[in-house]
Write a structure and sequence with these properties.
By secondary structure, the protein is mainly α. It has ten helices and no strands. The longest helix is centred in the N-terminal third of the chain and has 23 residues.
């Protein structure tokens, strides 16, 4: 969200007009145009700038989701990351970013995103399992096992964690260890 350093900031009237144009583009689904228009005023410290930042985040989010649906994972990740920079508490962003990384075969980035979400304690019980799967797909088998073992230590009553650990061990052909968790 940087204004062009060679340009003077827009006047209050021009900022309000730019905001109105950006909002109209957003509401009409012209998200790339909305992003361009709103970015120009998002750094202003006035009402237009504040509103522009909100809708800029929403435009990046919506465009990122559209790109994700179209299988354009790199572009989707860029827009979703921009949305998170503007509004870090947007629900579901970690999940969408993980989908982008998995779609690109970047299991290392998917695992890192899941670890970050888990550290932030987003309340998603599936995070350790999803992170372990991403680590395993990235060839980080030991880290995948450690992730599930740590989750079991924190919630020993969860049968799903034990089952997933057993499956992971079985996939590594460590059947005696797998049976311990599966039976």
């Amino acid at each position: 969200m940087k204004n062009n350093p060679g340009k003077a900031p827009p006047s209050q009237r021009n900022a309000a007009a730019a905001y109105q144009s950006g909002l109209a583009a957003f509401e009409q689904g012209r998200l790339v145009e909305a992003i361009e228009l709103l970015t120009a005023i998002a750094d202003l410290h006035n009402l237009s700038g504040t509103l522009a930042r909100f809708y800029l985040g929403q435009a990046h989010l919506q465009h990122g989701l559209n790109e994700l649906r179209m299988g354009r994972y790199a572009s989707a990740a860029r827009h979703l990351t921009s949305a998170r920079e503007i509004n870090p508490t947007t629900a579901g962003l970690a999940r969408y970013l993980v989908a982008c990384h998995v779609g690109r075969g970047r299991y290392d980035l998917a695992a890192a995103e899941l670890e970050k979400a888990q550290d932030e304690n987003r309340g998603d019980d599936t995070l350790p399992i999803r992170r372990a799967h991403a680590l395993a797909r990235d060839g980080q088998h030991e880290r995948a096992l450690e992730t599930l073992e740590r989750a079991i230590d924190e919630a020993p009553q969860r049968a799903d964690l034990r089952f997933q650990l057993g499956l992971l061990l079985a996939s590594a052909e460590d059947y005696p260890a797998a049976l311990k968790w599966l039976c």
